[in-house]
Structure formats: C-alpha cells, structure tokens
C-alpha cells in the first residue's frame, strides 16, 4: 500500500459542499494529530472548521463518522501502484511509501490515532480496514503482473505478499515503538520476496503435487 496525501484538506474542488467537507476533514485531522481520537468532539470540529454544528452532526453523525470520511479521502487521494518493471522494484516502492507515511509528522500521527481508535470503536475499525483493503487490492496488481512475467510462482497469493511487506513496519510503529527506517523497509522486502520466490505464498490448492 502507498502513501496518501499528508493533509485531508486538499480535496477536489466542487462548490460550497466540497469546501465544507475539506474544512471539516482538515479540522478532524488536526484534532487527531493534537489530541487523538478519544478527545474528538463534533462541536470542536465544527468550531475548528468554521462550520455550523448542525451541518457537522447531520452529515457525519459522530466522531467515528468523521474518521470514516477522512480515511475514505485518504484512499481516494492515494497514488496508483508502482510499475518499475520488476517485482523487487515494485515491492521496494511500496515499502518505502509506507515508511514515509509512517514517519511523516502529520500523516503518521493521524494513522496512529486511527489505529488506536480502531481497537475500541467498531466504526473506526471498519474505516481503517476499508482503507487498507483498498490499498492492498491496488498493490496486489504488481504481484499478479510478476506472476505473469514468471518472476513468482503460479498461485502466489498477491494480497498476502503485499501484507507481508508492510506488516513488520506497522509492528515496529505500533507494538515495539521502534524506528521505521529505510533499512527496515528494504529488509522486509528482501525477506518477503525470498519467501515468495520459494513458494511460501502459494495457496494450498495451487501447489504442484
């Protein structure tokens, strides 16, 4: 998966409704960065965005609704998968984009806040899951292309390989709280790719007898 825009306030133009949404999502991200999900209130966001409280309640309904729309916007802004011509290059591009996103002082903190929210709020969890499934599906294409080129075994599970590349990075960010460096990202790619080439990601029904 790759790196969405660092700010949710850069939504596409489209009249007053789009401007209101941009202001509200920017205010939501600001609040998440400063105070986290559990301090998020609808009145606070309305005041920050300069929007009437009635509008915010009617359109987003709850803090989790705000987070859901914010993650949807991140998904919409994300760039397409890389196309370097090799699976190694594509997976490295993926890992480095994840690394940059997690280390970004604004976006990285936003993602951490939403991840924390997802542990106790089902709507936030759904928003996070939807965002990442969209990105995994986008990047799975590079694995499918690699299989077609003969770089990886037939039957390689594309989504699982993409997950395997970024999982160690998120583990360091969220669980062990260690730095997510370029060396860590490239090592994750090397390990996942070695396993994939050895057939570790081939699903049981597709293995040769």
From TrEMBL:
Query: Which keywords fit this entry according to its UniProt record?
Result: DNA-binding, Transcription, Transcription regulation
Q: Which SUPFAM superfamilies match?
A: Homeodomain-like, Tetracyclin repressor-like, C-terminal domain
DNA-binding region(s) in UniProt: 41-60
What superkingdom does the record give?
Bacteria
Task: Show the InterPro entries listed in the entry.
Answer: Homeodomain-like_sf (IPR009057), HTH-type_TetR-like_transc_reg (IPR050109), HTH_TetR (IPR001647), Tet_transcr_reg_TetR-rel_C_sf (IPR036271), TetR_C (IPR011075)
Mention any Pfam family matching this sequence: TetR_C_11
Occurrences of domain HTH tetR-type (ranges) = 18-78
Q: Does the keyword rRNA processing apply?
A: no
Q: Which Gene3D superfamilies match?
A: Homeodomain-like, Tetracycline Repressor, domain 2
What's the protein called, per UniProt? TetR/AcrR family transcriptional regulator
Lineage, uppermost ranks: Bacteria, Bacillati, Actinomycetota, Actinomycetes, Streptosporangiales
């Amino acid at each position: 998966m790759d790196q969405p825009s660092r700010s949710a306030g850069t939504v596409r133009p489209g009249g007053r409704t789009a401007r209101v949404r941009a202001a509200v999502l920017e205010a939501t991200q600001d609040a998440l960065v400063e105070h986290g999900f559990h301090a998020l209130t609808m009145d606070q966001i309305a005041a920050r965005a300069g929007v009437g409280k009635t509008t915010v309640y009617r359109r987003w309904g709850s803090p989790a609704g705000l987070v859901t729309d914010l993650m949807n916007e991140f998904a919409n802004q994300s760039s397409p998968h890389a196309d370097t011509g090799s699976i190694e290059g594509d997976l490295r591009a993926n890992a480095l984009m994840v690394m940059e996103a997690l280390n970004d002082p604004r976006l990285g903190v936003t993602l951490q806040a939403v991840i924390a929210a997802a542990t106790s709020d089902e709507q936030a969890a759904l928003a996070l899951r939807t965002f990442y499934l969209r990105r995994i599906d986008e990047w799975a294409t590079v694995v499918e292309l690699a299989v077609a080129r003969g770089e990886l075994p037939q039957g390689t599970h594309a989504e699982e390989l993409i997950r395997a590349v970024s999982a160690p990075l998120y583990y360091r960010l969220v669980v062990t709280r260690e730095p997510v460096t370029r060396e860590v990202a490239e090592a994750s790619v090397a390990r996942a790719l070695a396993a994939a080439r050895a057939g570790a990601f081939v699903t049981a029904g597709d293995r040769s007898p």
